[in-house]
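Please review this one:
***
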Amino acid sequence: MSKPSRFDELNLSRLNLISAVDQAEVTEWDVTFENQGRVVRVRCEALPKYAVPHGLDSDVTAALLNLYIEQGEPEDGRFAVSATALLKLCGWHNTGKYHATLRHCLERLHTSSYSVSGGWRDHPKGRWTHAKFHFIESLDFSSADQYGTFDERTVISGRLADAIVASIRGGYLKPLDTEFMLSLSRPRTRALYRILDGARFDPEHPDQPLDQLEVNLIAWAEQCKLPSTVPGNIRRALASPHEELVKRGYLRSVSITGRGKAQVIRYEFVREFTPMDSVLARRFRTYGVADGVARKLLREHGRAFLIECMDRFDTLVQRGVLVVRKSKAAALMHLIGHPDEYPYPVAGVPLPGSTVSSEGSPRPVAKASRMEPLLDVPTIADEFVALPLTQQAEKLVARLGFLYRKRLSATDLDHVRQAVLEGRVAAPLVLEEAVAALARNEQDTFVQGLKAQLKTA
Protein backbone atom coordinates (compact mmCIF):
# COMPACT_ATOMS: atom_id res chain seq x y z
CA MET A 1 0.00 0.00 0.00
CA SER A 2 1.33 3.46 -0.89
CA LYS A 3 2.21 5.84 1.89
CA PRO A 4 -0.29 8.68 2.34
CA SER A 5 0.88 12.16 1.43
CA ARG A 6 2.15 14.17 4.41
CA PHE A 7 2.76 17.89 4.55
CA ASP A 8 4.19 20.65 6.69
CA GLU A 9 2.98 24.25 6.81
CA LEU A 10 5.81 26.43 5.53
CA ASN A 11 5.48 29.28 8.04
CA LEU A 12 5.81 26.86 10.94
CA SER A 13 8.74 24.95 9.48
CA ARG A 14 10.61 28.13 8.44
CA LEU A 15 10.11 30.08 11.66
CA ASN A 16 10.38 26.98 13.87
CA LEU A 17 8.16 27.46 16.91
CA ILE A 18 9.39 24.32 18.68
CA SER A 19 12.75 24.38 20.49
CA ALA A 20 15.12 21.70 19.16
CA VAL A 21 16.02 20.45 22.65
CA ASP A 22 14.94 17.30 24.45
CA GLN A 23 14.14 19.18 27.67
CA ALA A 24 13.36 22.86 28.28
CA GLU A 25 13.09 24.97 31.41
CA VAL A 26 12.68 28.49 30.00
CA THR A 27 9.25 30.07 29.81
CA GLU A 28 9.91 32.42 26.90
CA TRP A 29 12.15 33.19 23.98
CA ASP A 30 12.41 36.18 21.66
CA VAL A 31 14.23 36.05 18.32
CA THR A 32 14.80 38.92 15.86
CA PHE A 33 16.46 38.43 12.49
CA GLU A 34 16.61 39.92 9.01
CA ASN A 35 15.27 38.02 6.04
CA GLN A 36 15.42 39.36 2.49
CA GLY A 37 15.46 42.94 3.74
CA ARG A 38 12.68 42.46 6.30
CA VAL A 39 13.12 42.55 10.06
CA VAL A 40 11.27 39.60 11.57
CA ARG A 41 10.56 39.12 15.27
CA VAL A 42 9.20 35.89 16.71
CA ARG A 43 8.26 35.57 20.36
CA CYS A 44 6.95 32.73 22.54
CA GLU A 45 5.56 32.95 26.08
CA ALA A 46 4.63 29.84 28.06
CA LEU A 47 3.27 28.92 31.47
CA PRO A 48 5.95 28.05 34.05
CA LYS A 49 4.43 24.62 34.70
CA TYR A 50 4.92 23.58 31.05
CA ALA A 51 7.91 25.62 29.72
CA VAL A 52 8.13 26.58 26.05
CA PRO A 53 7.13 23.98 23.42
CA HIS A 54 10.07 21.68 22.75
CA GLY A 55 11.22 18.18 21.86
CA LEU A 56 8.29 15.80 21.35
CA ASP A 57 5.95 18.74 20.73
CA SER A 58 7.33 18.79 17.17
CA ASP A 59 5.90 15.29 16.60
CA VAL A 60 2.51 16.42 17.90
CA THR A 61 2.32 19.56 15.76
CA ALA A 62 3.22 17.58 12.62
CA ALA A 63 0.56 14.99 13.49
CA LEU A 64 -2.13 17.64 14.12
CA LEU A 65 -1.41 19.44 10.85
CA ASN A 66 -1.81 16.26 8.84
CA LEU A 67 -4.83 15.14 10.85
CA TYR A 68 -6.51 18.46 10.03
CA ILE A 69 -5.68 18.01 6.32
CA GLU A 70 -6.94 14.41 6.31
CA GLN A 71 -10.19 15.49 7.96
CA GLY A 72 -10.99 17.81 5.06
CA GLU A 73 -9.45 21.13 6.18
CA PRO A 74 -12.64 22.52 7.76
CA GLU A 75 -12.81 26.29 7.58
CA ASP A 76 -13.18 26.71 11.34
CA GLY A 77 -10.03 24.68 12.05
CA ARG A 78 -11.78 22.05 14.15
CA PHE A 79 -10.46 18.51 14.54
CA ALA A 80 -11.53 15.42 16.49
CA VAL A 81 -9.48 12.30 17.13
CA SER A 82 -8.98 9.60 19.73
CA ALA A 83 -5.82 9.68 21.82
CA THR A 84 -4.98 6.24 20.43
CA ALA A 85 -5.14 7.45 16.82
CA LEU A 86 -3.15 10.61 17.59
CA LEU A 87 -0.44 8.58 19.30
CA LYS A 88 -0.15 6.49 16.14
CA LEU A 89 0.16 9.64 14.00
CA CYS A 90 2.93 10.83 16.34
CA GLY A 91 4.74 7.51 15.93
CA TRP A 92 4.54 6.81 19.66
CA HIS A 93 3.64 3.66 21.58
CA ASN A 94 0.12 3.30 22.94
CA THR A 95 1.12 3.13 26.62
CA GLY A 96 0.27 5.01 29.79
CA LYS A 97 3.57 6.88 29.64
CA TYR A 98 2.87 8.27 26.19
CA HIS A 99 -0.77 9.03 27.05
CA ALA A 100 0.55 11.30 29.81
CA THR A 101 3.17 12.82 27.49
CA LEU A 102 0.53 13.53 24.84
CA ARG A 103 -1.66 15.28 27.40
CA HIS A 104 1.22 17.56 28.47
CA CYS A 105 2.19 18.32 24.86
CA LEU A 106 -1.36 19.31 23.97
CA GLU A 107 -1.69 21.49 27.06
CA ARG A 108 1.63 23.19 26.27
CA LEU A 109 0.60 23.88 22.67
CA HIS A 110 -2.75 25.20 23.89
CA THR A 111 -1.44 27.54 26.59
CA SER A 112 1.78 28.86 24.95
CA SER A 113 1.29 32.07 22.95
CA TYR A 114 3.18 33.09 19.83
CA SER A 115 3.71 36.48 18.22
CA VAL A 116 5.21 36.83 14.73
CA SER A 117 5.97 40.34 13.54
CA GLY A 118 6.46 40.85 9.81
CA GLY A 119 7.35 37.25 9.10
CA TRP A 120 4.11 35.32 8.60
CA ARG A 121 3.53 34.68 4.90
CA ASP A 122 0.06 35.18 3.42
CA HIS A 123 1.05 33.32 0.30
CA PRO A 124 -2.16 33.59 -1.78
CA LYS A 125 -1.96 37.41 -1.45
CA GLY A 126 1.84 37.55 -1.69
CA ARG A 127 2.13 39.59 1.51
CA TRP A 128 4.01 39.40 4.81
CA THR A 129 1.77 39.83 7.84
CA HIS A 130 1.74 39.84 11.64
CA ALA A 131 0.21 36.95 13.55
CA LYS A 132 -0.59 36.23 17.20
CA PHE A 133 -1.95 32.84 18.22
CA HIS A 134 -1.86 29.67 20.28
CA PHE A 135 -1.08 26.64 18.12
CA ILE A 136 -4.22 25.02 19.57
CA GLU A 137 -6.78 27.75 20.23
CA SER A 138 -9.32 25.54 21.98
CA LEU A 139 -8.94 22.11 23.54
CA ASP A 140 -11.45 19.62 24.92
CA PHE A 141 -11.04 15.95 25.81
CA SER A 142 -12.76 13.13 27.61
CA SER A 143 -10.94 11.69 30.60
CA ALA A 144 -10.80 8.69 32.87
CA ASP A 145 -11.02 10.82 36.03
CA GLN A 146 -11.34 14.34 37.44
CA TYR A 147 -7.61 14.92 36.93
CA GLY A 148 -7.79 14.82 33.15
CA THR A 149 -5.88 11.57 32.77
CA PHE A 150 -5.72 10.21 29.22
CA ASP A 151 -6.47 6.55 28.56
CA GLU A 152 -7.35 4.37 25.57
CA ARG A 153 -10.92 5.73 25.52
CA THR A 154 -9.94 9.41 25.48
CA VAL A 155 -11.24 11.46 22.56
CA ILE A 156 -9.71 14.88 21.83
CA SER A 157 -11.33 17.77 20.02
CA GLY A 158 -9.89 21.18 19.40
CA ARG A 159 -9.33 24.05 17.00
CA LEU A 160 -6.12 25.07 15.27
CA ALA A 161 -5.08 28.73 15.11
CA ASP A 162 -6.82 30.80 12.42
CA ALA A 163 -3.46 31.86 10.93
CA ILE A 164 -2.38 28.22 10.53
CA VAL A 165 -5.74 27.20 9.09
CA ALA A 166 -5.71 30.02 6.52
CA SER A 167 -2.18 29.12 5.48
CA ILE A 168 -2.98 25.41 5.01
CA ARG A 169 -6.18 26.15 3.11
CA GLY A 170 -4.20 28.59 0.96
CA GLY A 171 -1.83 25.79 -0.05
CA TYR A 172 1.30 27.14 1.67
CA LEU A 173 2.63 23.64 2.26
CA LYS A 174 5.60 21.47 1.48
CA PRO A 175 6.01 17.68 1.46
CA LEU A 176 7.13 16.15 4.76
CA ASP A 177 8.49 12.61 4.99
CA THR A 178 6.98 11.81 8.38
CA GLU A 179 7.97 8.14 8.13
CA PHE A 180 11.62 9.17 7.93
CA MET A 181 11.21 11.90 10.56
CA LEU A 182 9.63 9.56 13.10
CA SER A 183 12.33 6.96 12.50
CA LEU A 184 15.00 9.35 13.81
CA SER A 185 16.22 8.44 17.27
CA ARG A 186 15.82 11.63 19.32
CA PRO A 187 13.30 14.48 19.51
CA ARG A 188 16.01 17.08 18.85
CA THR A 189 17.10 15.24 15.68
CA ARG A 190 13.51 15.08 14.45
CA ALA A 191 13.06 18.79 15.20
CA LEU A 192 16.29 19.70 13.39
CA TYR A 193 15.26 17.61 10.37
CA ARG A 194 11.97 19.48 10.19
CA ILE A 195 13.72 22.87 10.53
CA LEU A 196 16.25 21.98 7.82
CA ASP A 197 13.56 20.65 5.52
CA GLY A 198 11.69 23.96 5.86
CA ALA A 199 14.82 26.09 5.42
CA ARG A 200 15.47 24.43 2.04
CA PHE A 201 12.51 26.28 0.50
CA ASP A 202 12.40 29.91 -0.66
CA PRO A 203 9.42 31.36 1.26
CA GLU A 204 8.31 33.45 -1.72
CA HIS A 205 8.87 30.74 -4.34
CA PRO A 206 8.35 27.39 -2.59
CA ASP A 207 8.63 25.29 -5.74
CA GLN A 208 12.15 23.86 -5.65
CA PRO A 209 14.29 22.86 -2.66
CA LEU A 210 17.91 23.93 -2.27
CA ASP A 211 20.82 21.50 -2.63
CA GLN A 212 22.87 23.35 -0.02
CA LEU A 213 22.38 25.85 2.78
CA GLU A 214 24.82 28.17 4.57
CA VAL A 215 23.87 29.78 7.89
CA ASN A 216 25.67 31.67 10.62
CA LEU A 217 26.19 29.40 13.64
CA ILE A 218 24.73 31.86 16.18
CA ALA A 219 21.78 32.74 13.94
CA TRP A 220 21.10 29.04 13.39
CA ALA A 221 21.09 28.42 17.15
CA GLU A 222 18.42 31.12 17.45
CA GLN A 223 16.47 29.53 14.59
CA CYS A 224 16.60 26.19 16.41
CA LYS A 225 15.74 27.94 19.71
CA LEU A 226 18.78 26.49 21.44
CA PRO A 227 19.35 28.00 24.91
CA SER A 228 23.08 28.80 24.50
CA THR A 229 24.86 31.48 22.46
CA VAL A 230 28.33 30.04 23.12
CA PRO A 231 29.70 28.61 19.81
CA GLY A 232 31.23 25.53 21.45
CA ASN A 233 27.98 24.65 23.22
CA ILE A 234 26.02 25.09 20.01
CA ARG A 235 28.34 22.80 18.07
CA ARG A 236 28.07 20.13 20.76
CA ALA A 237 24.26 20.40 20.85
CA LEU A 238 24.07 19.91 17.06
CA ALA A 239 26.80 17.27 16.71
CA SER A 240 24.66 14.20 17.41
CA PRO A 241 21.72 15.27 15.17
CA HIS A 242 24.18 16.14 12.39
CA GLU A 243 25.82 12.74 12.67
CA GLU A 244 22.53 10.87 12.48
CA LEU A 245 21.17 12.91 9.54
CA VAL A 246 24.35 12.22 7.58
CA LYS A 247 24.34 8.54 8.51
CA ARG A 248 20.66 8.19 7.54
CA GLY A 249 21.28 9.73 4.13
CA TYR A 250 19.40 13.02 4.47
CA LEU A 251 22.54 15.17 4.58
CA ARG A 252 25.49 14.56 2.31
CA SER A 253 27.80 16.53 4.59
CA VAL A 254 27.98 19.17 7.33
CA SER A 255 30.95 21.52 7.70
CA ILE A 256 31.61 24.40 10.09
CA THR A 257 34.15 27.09 9.13
CA GLY A 258 35.34 30.37 10.62
CA ARG A 259 36.08 31.46 14.16
CA GLY A 260 34.03 32.64 17.14
CA LYS A 261 30.66 34.17 16.39
CA ALA A 262 31.51 34.39 12.68
CA GLN A 263 31.38 30.61 12.26
CA VAL A 264 29.24 29.33 9.41
CA ILE A 265 27.52 25.96 9.01
CA ARG A 266 27.31 24.57 5.49
CA TYR A 267 24.74 21.85 4.87
CA GLU A 268 24.77 19.76 1.68
CA PHE A 269 21.62 17.75 1.11
CA VAL A 270 21.22 14.37 -0.54
CA ARG A 271 18.77 14.91 -3.33
CA GLU A 272 17.25 11.57 -4.19
CA PHE A 273 14.21 13.13 -5.78
CA THR A 274 12.57 16.51 -6.17
CA PRO A 275 9.50 16.73 -3.95
CA MET A 276 6.31 17.56 -5.78
CA ASP A 277 5.08 21.08 -5.28
CA SER A 278 2.37 21.19 -2.65
CA VAL A 279 -0.42 22.48 -4.91
CA LEU A 280 -0.06 19.60 -7.37
CA ALA A 281 0.29 17.01 -4.60
CA ARG A 282 -2.79 18.27 -2.74
CA ARG A 283 -4.86 18.30 -5.91
CA PHE A 284 -3.93 14.72 -6.77
CA ARG A 285 -4.90 13.75 -3.24
CA THR A 286 -8.46 15.07 -3.77
CA TYR A 287 -8.89 12.44 -6.50
CA GLY A 288 -7.47 9.69 -4.30
CA VAL A 289 -4.24 9.29 -6.30
CA ALA A 290 -1.42 7.96 -4.10
CA ASP A 291 1.66 10.13 -3.64
CA GLY A 292 4.01 7.56 -5.16
CA VAL A 293 1.83 7.31 -8.28
CA ALA A 294 1.65 11.10 -8.52
CA ARG A 295 5.46 11.37 -8.42
CA LYS A 296 5.75 8.83 -11.24
CA LEU A 297 3.21 10.74 -13.33
CA LEU A 298 5.09 13.98 -12.71
CA ARG A 299 8.36 12.46 -13.93
CA GLU A 300 6.71 10.97 -17.02
CA HIS A 301 4.41 13.80 -18.12
CA GLY A 302 5.43 17.07 -16.47
CA ARG A 303 3.45 19.50 -14.34
CA ALA A 304 1.70 21.47 -17.11
CA PHE A 305 0.26 18.37 -18.82
CA LEU A 306 -1.04 16.95 -15.52
CA ILE A 307 -2.76 20.19 -14.55
CA GLU A 308 -4.34 20.36 -18.01
CA CYS A 309 -5.60 16.78 -17.61
CA MET A 310 -7.08 17.50 -14.17
CA ASP A 311 -8.77 20.65 -15.48
CA ARG A 312 -10.20 18.65 -18.40
CA PHE A 313 -11.36 15.89 -16.06
CA ASP A 314 -13.15 18.35 -13.76
CA THR A 315 -14.87 20.07 -16.68
CA LEU A 316 -16.03 16.78 -18.24
CA VAL A 317 -17.46 15.59 -14.93
CA GLN A 318 -19.20 18.91 -14.23
CA ARG A 319 -20.82 18.91 -17.67
CA GLY A 320 -21.94 15.31 -17.37
CA VAL A 321 -19.81 14.12 -20.27
CA LEU A 322 -17.81 11.80 -18.04
CA VAL A 323 -19.78 9.85 -15.43
CA VAL A 324 -17.54 8.40 -12.70
CA ARG A 325 -18.89 5.04 -11.57
CA LYS A 326 -15.79 3.51 -10.02
CA SER A 327 -13.40 6.01 -8.51
CA LYS A 328 -12.07 9.42 -9.45
CA ALA A 329 -8.52 8.07 -9.27
CA ALA A 330 -9.20 5.33 -11.82
CA ALA A 331 -11.05 7.66 -14.19
CA LEU A 332 -8.37 10.36 -14.00
CA MET A 333 -5.58 7.83 -14.57
CA HIS A 334 -7.36 6.59 -17.69
CA LEU A 335 -7.73 10.12 -19.03
CA ILE A 336 -4.04 10.88 -18.42
CA GLY A 337 -3.05 7.69 -20.22
CA HIS A 338 -5.48 8.17 -23.13
CA PRO A 339 -6.08 11.93 -23.51
CA ASP A 340 -7.10 11.67 -27.19
CA GLU A 341 -10.12 9.56 -26.25
CA TYR A 342 -11.67 12.36 -24.24
CA PRO A 343 -13.20 15.49 -25.78
CA TYR A 344 -12.12 18.80 -24.30
CA PRO A 345 -15.11 21.14 -23.93
CA VAL A 346 -14.51 24.78 -24.79
CA ALA A 347 -16.92 27.49 -23.71
CA GLY A 348 -19.39 28.24 -26.50
CA VAL A 349 -18.08 25.44 -28.74
CA PRO A 350 -20.06 22.19 -29.11
CA LEU A 351 -18.17 19.07 -28.12
CA PRO A 352 -17.47 16.26 -30.57
CA GLY A 353 -20.66 14.22 -30.91
CA SER A 354 -22.94 17.07 -29.88
CA THR A 355 -25.53 18.79 -31.99
CA VAL A 356 -26.92 22.29 -32.04
CA SER A 357 -30.61 22.97 -31.55
CA SER A 358 -32.66 25.17 -33.83
CA GLU A 359 -32.26 27.94 -31.26
CA GLY A 360 -28.46 27.75 -31.68
CA SER A 361 -27.66 26.27 -28.24
CA PRO A 362 -25.75 22.99 -27.91
CA ARG A 363 -27.84 19.97 -27.02
CA PRO A 364 -26.63 17.58 -24.30
CA VAL A 365 -23.24 16.26 -25.31
CA ALA A 366 -22.73 12.61 -26.14
CA LYS A 367 -20.02 10.79 -24.24
CA ALA A 368 -16.66 10.17 -25.84
CA SER A 369 -16.67 7.12 -28.07
CA ARG A 370 -14.33 5.11 -25.81
CA MET A 371 -14.94 5.77 -22.13
CA GLU A 372 -13.55 3.47 -19.49
CA PRO A 373 -16.24 1.12 -18.09
CA LEU A 374 -16.57 2.21 -14.48
CA LEU A 375 -18.40 0.83 -11.45
CA ASP A 376 -20.79 2.57 -9.10
CA VAL A 377 -19.71 5.47 -6.90
CA PRO A 378 -18.92 4.19 -3.39
CA THR A 379 -21.63 4.64 -0.75
CA ILE A 380 -21.09 5.51 2.91
CA ALA A 381 -21.33 1.82 3.77
CA ASP A 382 -18.59 1.04 1.22
CA GLU A 383 -16.19 3.32 3.16
CA PHE A 384 -16.35 0.91 6.11
CA VAL A 385 -16.14 -2.38 4.21
CA ALA A 386 -13.26 -4.59 5.40
CA LEU A 387 -12.20 -2.04 8.03
CA PRO A 388 -11.60 -3.45 11.54
CA LEU A 389 -13.77 -2.00 14.29
CA THR A 390 -10.96 0.23 15.55
CA GLN A 391 -10.64 1.96 12.19
CA GLN A 392 -14.41 2.17 11.79
CA ALA A 393 -14.60 3.88 15.18
CA GLU A 394 -11.83 6.35 14.30
CA LYS A 395 -13.43 7.18 10.94
CA LEU A 396 -16.82 7.75 12.55
CA VAL A 397 -15.39 9.96 15.31
CA ALA A 398 -13.54 12.08 12.75
CA ARG A 399 -16.61 12.51 10.53
CA LEU A 400 -19.00 13.26 13.39
CA GLY A 401 -16.45 15.63 14.89
CA PHE A 402 -16.47 17.52 11.59
CA LEU A 403 -20.21 17.41 10.83
CA TYR A 404 -21.47 17.99 14.39
CA ARG A 405 -18.58 19.91 15.92
CA LYS A 406 -20.86 22.31 17.82
CA ARG A 407 -23.27 19.65 19.03
CA LEU A 408 -21.09 16.71 20.10
CA SER A 409 -18.45 17.14 22.80
CA ALA A 410 -15.28 15.12 23.21
CA THR A 411 -17.07 13.06 25.85
CA ASP A 412 -19.95 12.37 23.44
CA LEU A 413 -17.48 11.21 20.80
CA ASP A 414 -15.76 9.05 23.41
CA HIS A 415 -19.10 7.27 24.02
CA VAL A 416 -19.71 6.85 20.27
CA ARG A 417 -16.27 5.37 19.72
CA GLN A 418 -16.65 2.94 22.61
CA ALA A 419 -20.09 1.83 21.39
CA VAL A 420 -18.63 0.98 17.97
CA LEU A 421 -15.71 -0.92 19.52
CA GLU A 422 -18.12 -2.93 21.69
CA GLY A 423 -20.40 -3.66 18.73
CA ARG A 424 -23.38 -1.82 20.25
CA VAL A 425 -23.83 0.48 17.23
CA ALA A 426 -22.87 0.15 13.57
CA ALA A 427 -20.56 2.93 12.37
CA PRO A 428 -21.86 3.13 8.75
CA LEU A 429 -25.49 3.31 9.89
CA VAL A 430 -24.73 6.09 12.37
CA LEU A 431 -22.91 8.09 9.70
CA GLU A 432 -25.68 7.57 7.15
CA GLU A 433 -28.22 8.85 9.69
CA ALA A 434 -25.96 11.80 10.53
CA VAL A 435 -25.63 12.83 6.87
CA ALA A 436 -29.35 12.37 6.24
CA ALA A 437 -30.19 14.52 9.28
CA LEU A 438 -27.96 17.28 7.95
CA ALA A 439 -29.77 17.18 4.61
CA ARG A 440 -33.12 17.50 6.43
CA ASN A 441 -31.77 20.18 8.80
CA GLU A 442 -32.62 17.90 11.75
CA GLN A 443 -29.24 17.90 13.47
CA ASP A 444 -30.62 18.37 16.98
CA THR A 445 -33.03 15.48 16.52
CA PHE A 446 -30.21 13.24 15.35
CA VAL A 447 -27.98 14.17 18.28
CA GLN A 448 -30.75 13.55 20.80
CA GLY A 449 -31.54 10.19 19.22
CA LEU A 450 -27.88 9.20 19.13
CA LYS A 451 -27.36 10.01 22.80
CA ALA A 452 -30.50 8.09 23.74
CA GLN A 453 -29.31 5.13 21.66
CA LEU A 454 -25.93 5.14 23.40
CA LYS A 455 -27.62 5.02 26.80
CA THR A 456 -29.84 2.07 25.92
CA ALA A 457 -27.48 0.13 23.60
